[in-house]
Amino acid sequence: MEEIKQYCEKVIQMLRLDYPAQLQYPGSIKKIYDVMLQILSCDELPDVDWVGMVRCFVDETTDYQNPVLFEIDKIAKLSKEK
Q1: What is the largest CA-CA distance in the chain?
Q2: Domain edges within the chain
Q3: pTM higher than 0.90 for the full model?
Q4: Domain of life of the organism in this record (predicted)?
Q5: Residue by residue, what is the 3-state secondary structure of 31-57?
Q6: Full pLDDT tens readout for the chain, 82 residues
Q7: Which residues have a Cβ under 8 Å from the Cβ of 17 and sit 6 or more positions away?
Q8: Which residues contact 60 (CB under 8 A, 6 or more apart)?
Q9: Cα 81 from chain centroid?
């Protein structure tokens, strides 16, 4: 779980740096941010549709190579192992 939390912290940092304005409004970026905060604040993983989350992010940003996507992929893979 600690490894997942480390990846969540990276995602939060990237979102704060790259999308500070979008964090104020509903949308996929805010949703990802909120899920990452939720994971950090508890010891259980919420039930998340990781693929759907990534699709929404790409639809909203059109950034298919964003590092956030790679970090989310790592979290998704680790969450399947739990």
Answers
A1: 34
A2: 2-81
A3: yes
A4: Bacteria
A5: HHHHHHHHHHHCCCCCCCCHHHHHHHH
A6: 899 999 999 999 999 999 999 999 999 999 999 999 999 998 888 899 999 999 999 999 999 999 999 999 999 999 988 6
A7: none
A8: 27, 28, 29
A9: 18
